[in-house]
Every structure is written in structure tokens, then in C-alpha cells.
Design goal:
Blueprint lengths: L2 H13 L2 E9 L3 E8 L4 E8 L6 H16 L8 E7 L2 E7 L3 E3 H13 L4 H7 L26 H20 L3 E2 L8 E4 L4 E3 L6 E2 L33 H16 L9 H10 L14 H10 L11 H31 L43 H22 L3 H13 L4 H13 L4 H13 L6 H14 L4 H14 L4 H13 L3 H14 L4 H13 L3 H14 L5 H12 L3 H9 L8 H10 L3 H14 L3 H17 L3 H14 L8 H9 L13 H17 L10 E13 L5 E13 L5 E8 L7 E3 L4 E2 L1 E5 L7 E11 L3 E14 L7 E7 L7 E10 L2 E6 L5 E5 L2 E10 L4 E10 L2
Parallel strand pairs: 11-20
Antiparallel strand pairs: 1-2, 2-3, 3-5, 4-5, 6-8, 7-10, 8-9, 11-12, 12-18, 13-17, 14-15, 14-18, 16-17, 19-24, 20-23, 21-24, 22-23
Helix pairs in contact: 5-6, 5-9, 6-8, 8-9, 10-11, 12-13, 12-14, 12-16, 14-15, 15-16, 16-17, 17-18, 18-19, 18-20, 19-20, 20-21, 20-22, 22-23, 23-24, 24-25, 26-27
Length: 894
Amino acid sequence: MPNEAFEKFKKEMAARGLAIRGKIGEGGMGSVYEAFDEALDRRAAVKLMRGDACSESWRERFRREAKFAARVVHPGVAQVYQAGELENLLYYVMEYVDGGALSSFLKKALFIKTHAGDAAELLRAGYLKQPDPGAPYFLRDLIAPPFGDPDYLARVDDLIASIADILEAVHSLDSVHRDIKPSNIMITADGRVKLVDFGLVKQSVDRDITQANHFVGTFDYMAPEQFGGKGSKISPAVDIYSLGVVYYEMAALVKPFEGDDPASLIGAVTSKEPADPREYNPEISAARAGIILKCLKKNPSDRFANARELARAVRDLKKNVSEGIMSDIKNFFFGLFSSQGFDNSAPPPVARVEANKPTAGENFENGKTLSSGGLNAPLAAAGRSKVSRALLEEAREEYFKNFVTDAVREKLNQSFDLDPANVDALLLFFLFLNHGIITRTEFNAKLKLSREGESSLDSREKLILDAIIAFYSDDDVKSASSAGFRYINLYPDDLLMTVFVCLAEMMQGNFTQALQCCDKVLSRRRDFLLMHLIKADIYATTGDIDRSVEIGKELIARYPENTNHKFLLLQNYIVYGRLDEAEKMISQMTSDGEESYQKASYYMCRGMIKESVVETRKLIALETNPLFKSYHYYRLYRICEFAGESEKAAEHLQMANKLSPGHDFKDFSRISEEIKNIAPVKTAFENISHDCLAAAFEHAKKICFKTLDPLTHVKLSLLSETAYYHLEQRGAEILSCEKAVIYSDYHFKPYPVTKNMVCLDSVPISPFISYKGDIYDAALKKFSSPNGNYYALIDYKPPQKNGEFMFFMAQFEPSEFKPDEKTKIFKFTTGEKPNSNGSFTGIVISFPADLKAVYVSCPPDEICERNSRIFYYYTKFLFCGRKFVVEIGLAHQK
């Protein structure tokens, strides 16, 4: 929301006695802030909707949510104190709920269930915490699967019964919640249960303000009749079903139905029977399993008649337990004296039925009745396509305003899964891939599905697919950019393709054209946050850090609640070495873990190893993608190894390789040995012998290893350079200086790399040559920056493989110069180039042994004599845009 309107809102609310503090949450319709009611001396929560950026239907839904929550009188629903509109911002003030969502407990339980064998190691390493016995059970940390707790199922029963009580209050108002799921069930700090988010509530007198053909709810928890189309009757029974799914999931730690995509999940929910939950947890009693399965009946009339009846049945389980103990005693003695024994075993569990993905040509058909419940099939092919497009539009709009959020990802996944031939959705997924939001494996699967439906695409869609394939599969960014420009000329309103072209131009070093793409999009959608971020990134990449920072500050002022631009600004401060400004930003941030990557980098720059480890561990705890989690573990390995904590480092390395076995993350001793064994083929440049280049190459290998230091702000590529200055005497006063640069690159992405971009001070006078003697093609691009640099886009042929070290070199323009007339000092400079990361750099200066250095501004790290030449070796860490200058005064030996 615009900062000016928000500040006015805060000021007006403060005048009314309500002081708004920091943001505590964000949802699809707005943000939630903590507040303090000074008159009543109590905490409160304020839910705010961006009234200037949402449709009237969403505004109506927001108003309805506030009104309905105010009507429900029950301790399990947060009380609404007031509601209204200020500065075009809809809001309501409600009771502050201090605690956490049930979904958080489930995530912990599923994690520990999956990693039970690693629990001791994870606890020792600090990734798991000992549970606080004083905290409510469902807010505690876990160090063992909850199934081992003899009271676990009884606790789950109490929880479900409490939620059913709340639902009874909701249903008594002739209303249906329609979105019962773990993330909408809150556990307070004193152990009470609260039901939240009434944005989808439906009352019998309401018209349905949701879009036609748009499913309302969350697929995993929706009842079969919610998929039945516009004519399906929605009753309180859908909430009974959804609570049954939660009950099943809590008791068995698995959902009753799973599918590879929404279509197969819908098919399972509407036509298959769930497995008996005892198949997953044998401790579930037959009576409890019966209650759960009754909630999940296909026909609404076969479920519990109301929530009160469900609550009573669950609470009766405790009564039955005490009665069952006496029954078991009787059965035991009966069995001792009966020749036939006594069979009191539970009935055998029914077979697990998995949701199957429809085969080619298989569709749900309109009008086809299902054996269970007589429901209409959920969607015909045309219907799926229509809903897919509607979901995509919602995802695109959210993407424009807020970049990548959980809501964007959920809607986009639903859109694509319903219609894999929707290449517009594939285009947005491709942008996600470039943002690092999804992995190549995930994108490969989606691209494969899209290509299978290629024959059904029209000319517009075919052009999109061709552009994506050229960029991604063929690694032909230039052709991808050309296809993108053709598309834009035909369909100028598609802003996402302009983003695609912008990224393609950046990949080619065409930063001027990329900036033009940014300006074109922003002229149409000023609120498209991503394009502001890309523009700031282009300026940072080309060394104009001041303009990049200016954009970042403007975005923070305009959109204070959004975090993406804050992270970019903080990252720029760090990689450019503006650490005091970074420290100030960090001190003003809430510690919710999202900024932990930047914090970890900042602390490394300050030499605060322990703090960097803490932030990296937060990253691991928050990350759900195993691939990205493995990168964080490898970073922890690097930190601990450089800190001399080899035992801890080994544990982190083991976890990294366990999470992503295809990477083959290497330990330092193995890397050191592999680098040591690399020897360049015999290469010589003009006026530089192979022996001299070999001496410089040995230092370049040390620099390559040094880039593993976690001080380098990188995750996937470790590119560094070593500048070699070769001086020769050409008379009494004049020395000639030849220059060569050796680049080193260590790559541990799980796929081959075919291109890399390096920043140059000047135009090379030789080709780029690999240490194996291969000559690389390189496209040079001059760009506008404070230092007037060039970028070279290097083609690796053959491609660089996973875990492979790459060295290549080039010679640059020679120069003849005299020392300073007064000081007789020679000056050598390296750095001062923009880059995406701070990194280590090397300088090697050699001169004939009959000369001696009478003045050196900075003592070298190492000096050696080789083949009648003196070599000075320097290793320096340089932030982006920084330079390292060495001044040397030379004189003849006497």
C-alpha cells in the first residue's frame, strides 16, 4: 500500500487511541499488524486491506469477513472491536491472538517423522530444539515423532472436539466457513483454540461473490460437493468433511487423499475411498477411525448431522477408553479359559487407494454420475481450461503487485495442473525459475507436459513455447530474445513476455535494452514491483550502485510492508561493502528469518562467525526445498571449515550431500587436491613466456581455492580472477608492461554450464583460452558505468560439468609507461569492476631480477625468484566496485 496513505492511517488511528506497531502477518487480502489500545491497556490486531489495489468483489469479501466475525459469539473466534475505512484502506480491529497455527506443528511433525533417524544429530547441531514442557502441546518443538507420546491421540481428540464446538457456533448463524485447514486453526499461548479467516464464509442469504467456475477453498481439505459445480449445495457438512481431513492428518500424519496434480486429487476425493487411518498409525482405535471415516463420507447426509454431534462422538472416546480397560481385563481371563480363545482384534484395514493421474485422452465428463454420492464430475476439459485461465489471471495480478508469494505459487500450480497446455502459466513458471523460486527439476517436468500438448497450441501460444525452449532447452538466449520481441510486436499487452525479454537481454549483457524493457513495463504498470527490482539490479550490476540504492529507498518509502526490495537493497549494501548502512537496515528489521541470507553474509563480512552460523541455521529451518536446503548446509560446511570446526563441518557436508546426492558437494581436502593436480597446457602470449604464465597460474589456483571462503557472497558459482603484470626493461627509463588475466571458476550446480559472464577493464587482444588449450567464443558488450567497463559472455565448449574447475585466460592491451616524474613510482590497479558478488582477487607482478624494489606501498603476501625474475604475489578480498592499488618503485641493482 502507498506509504503516504498508510502513514496517514497510522496517524489517524493513533489519534483514536490505537498505536499500530509492526506487521505480524500477511494474507491474500491484506496485512495484519500488531497494535496497542491505550485506553483499554490491551494488545490488538489490525487487519488492513489494500483498498486502492483490489477489486470491489474482494473489498466486499473483506467487509463480509469483518461483519461475520463480529457476529460470532464464541471464545474460539477472535472478537472484532471495530471496522471501517480510512484513506481508502479497509480495516478492522480485533482481538490479538498470541500463539501459532496448527500447520506449524504439522510441519514439525512431518519433518521429524521423515528425519527420525537423524534426530540426535540434528538436535546436537542445533537444528532441533528441546521442547518447552510449559508451552501448550501443539506449540512445542519436537525431537521425536508424536506417535511415541501415549497421550498424543487424546490431545488430538480434545483439539478436534474444540474446533467442532466453534463450528457449531458458526453453523448456528446459518453459515459455512468453507476453508477449515490447519493454517486457519490457531493455538494460543495459553493453549486455547481459535478459528480464523472468515473470508470465504457463506451465509444462506448471501449471493456468492466468488467467480463462476472458481473453486472456493483449499483443494486438500475440500469436500466432494465443493467440486461439483455451480449447482452443488454447500451446507455445514462441508466443514464437517474438512475437519475430518484435519483429524485424519493429525492422527495419521498423512492426508486421506493425495494426487500428482489437482485433477487427480479431485478425482480421488470425488470417487475413491480413503484408506483406514490405522494403516498409518496402528495406535488409532477402531472407534476413532470410524469417526474420522464418517466425516469423510462422499454423501453429505452420511456424515455427522452437525458439529455438535461430532464433538460428542469424539468426547465419548474418553468414556469408551475407561470402559474398554475393564472389557480388556474380562477378555484376557476369558481367553485363558476358552478353548477357542477370544478374538478382539480390529478389523483389517482397507486397501490404500492412491489418486491416479488421468491417462492421455481421459477426461471427466459433464453429467457423468459417480458411484458415491451421485455427484456431477468436477470439471470437463473445457471447464478445466476456463478455471485454469481464471487462476492464472489471479496469479499474474498478485505477481505484478507483490512479486512471488505463497498465493501466487498456489494459484499458478493449480492453473497449470488443471491445464498443462497453458503455456502462459509455463511462462510465469520460467520466470520463477530465473528468480530461483523453483528448481530446474520442477521446471523440466512442467516443460515436458507442455511439449506433449504442443499440437493443440495456436500460433500465439506456439511463439511463447518456442521462446522458452530457445532460452532454456537450446541455451540460445539470442534467439529467445528475438522470438520474444516478435511476440511483443504482435501482442504488446502481454507484460510478462516483456519481462522475459528483459531477462534475455540481461543474460547477453545488453543492459541498455534491458532498461528499456523495464521502463516500457513500468509505463503501463507502475505497481509492478519486480520491474523496479530488476531495474535496481541492472544499475548495481553495471556499477551504478547509487542509482540502485536510490530505487531501493524509494520502494521502501512507497511499499513499506513489502520485503523483496528491502532484501535487494540490503544485499547491495553488503556486496558493495557499505556495511554501516547494512547494519542500520538490519537493526530495523524484524527477526522473522526471511532476511537471514543477507544477515549471514553481513556477519561474515564483520568476522562474526557465530552470528553467521545462527542465521544460516534459520535459513535451513525455513527452507522446504531440499535442493536449496543443501546449498545452505554446504555454506555452513564452508563456514565451520574455515573456522577450524572440522567435526561440525563434516556433519553439515554429510547433510548437504544427503539432501542433494546429485551435487557431490566436495570437502576442502578433496578440492585442494584436485586443484593442485590441474596443469595448463603450454601457452604463451606475446612477450609473456609460458614459464611466467605458469607462475601466475599457480597463484590463480590458490585464488580459486580461496573463493570457497564463505566471505564470498555466492551460492552456485565461484568465479575469481588473477591479474598478471609482466614488466620488461626497454631502456634506461622505460619499462614495458604486458597484462594477462587468469579466470578461475568452480561450479557445483547439478547440471552443465555453457556460458559465463566476466567483467573486463578493457578489450582483450587475444582470444579467451582454457587451461586445456580450448579457444572460447566470447561476445563483448560495452556498458555505461562510472568506470566504462565491458562484459564478455563466454561460451564454455565443452560445457563445464558439475564439480569441475574451469580456468581460462586472455591477454589485454599492453602499455608503455614511465614512472611518475617526481616519485619514480609505478602504479598497478585491479578491481573497480561491478560484479554480482564480492570475491577474492589476485595480483602477480614480475620484473627482471636485475631490478630491485626500492619502494612498495603494500608488502606482498609472498615473494619468490624464478628464472631470473622476481614475483610479487597478492591475495585480496574486494567488495564490488572496490579497487586494489599497488605502487612500486624500481631501480637497478648496484
